[in-house]
Amino acid sequence: MGFFQLRTVPGCQWPALPDSKFAQIWNAYLELDRTQWLSRAELEARQLEQVRTLLAHCIINVPYFRETLPAAGVRPGGIRSMGDFRKIPLLSRRTYQEKVIPRPATALPEGTVALGTTATSGSSGAPTFALTTNLTQLWWYACYLRDLEWCKIDPTGTLAVIRQFPKVGLEMQGKSAPCWLLSLNGLIQYGPANVMDIRQDPRVQLQWLRGFAADCLLSYSANLEALAALAKQSGPLPGLKTIHSISSTLDPRAQVEIESVFGVPVKNTYSCNEAGYLASPCPDGPGFHVHAENVLLEVLDENDQPCQPGQTGRVFITHLHNVRGPFIRYDLGDEATLGPESCSCGRGLPVLTRIIGRNLPMFRLPGGKLKNTTNLAGPVREIGGHWQHQVIQKAVDHAVVRLAIDPTWTDRHADEMIRAVQEFFEAPIRVELEFHDRLALPNSGKFQSMITEIAG
Question: Does the CA dihedral 235-180-134-39 come out positive or negative?
Answer without folding.
Answer: positive
